[in-house]
Amino acid sequence: MQPRSGIVKSRTGGIMKQRRAGVTFTAKPKGFTLIELLVVIAIIALLAAILFPVFARARENARKTSCQNSLKQIGLGFAQYVQDYDETWVTPDKPTGTVTPGVVCRDGNSPEDGWEAWIMPYVKSWQLFVCPSNANKTYDGRINGGRCRTSYAINLNYWNNTRKNAWGAPVAESDWVKPAETVTVVDMTAADSWVGGWNMNPPANWDDPVSSPASTFTNRINQLHLDGSNYLYKDGHVKWNLTSRVTFRNFSIEQG
Question: If we measure between CA atoms, which residue out of 112, 106, 115 comes closest to residue 77?
């Protein structure tokens, strides 16, 4: 039965066809307008602006976790060293000109001193000493001045303590007052921190954060991981923290 208007409508492949009095009219689907395209582009740009920081944070979290795992392995290397050396902690330097047998930096040269060389026989990989978030390629395990440069610095203050009254005197396990609260290794920066630590002057207040103006080594702590740093403590645990939450007390075995 034909419609009263005499118009017959049919749809084929998404195209509307109208037939009237033996003549067929074809209506093509309507495309996007310029405004509609601009709206779609704006939505995509908005989603990208929201998601990209999320992805970047997730990537940095992964790097932070990798750095923490490396520090844990370094902590295990310290523990093994202490067991083999009569419960005595590593010393800051070795006698000039001496090398640890079988230990070489990433460039193939043998280091003459440095705490990394002491524990290399236990960790067996220079890659552990390179933080994945450290873009400074000079700290990649190659030798410089007798030491292998790395991304981490050791807390030299436990060698320079009044109990021993001598720089570099052997430090026994029993000398650590609060090992769970005392930092041994942390991310580092600054031009001279490849030496592997700090020489901290006694502050007026041991509870001042290391980020305070009185600090002599604030700028040597890398805040690479989401505005914070990874810290290895004497008892072997690793913790991320802000420099504003870490105090001078955390860097002294005596004031621990």
Answer: 115
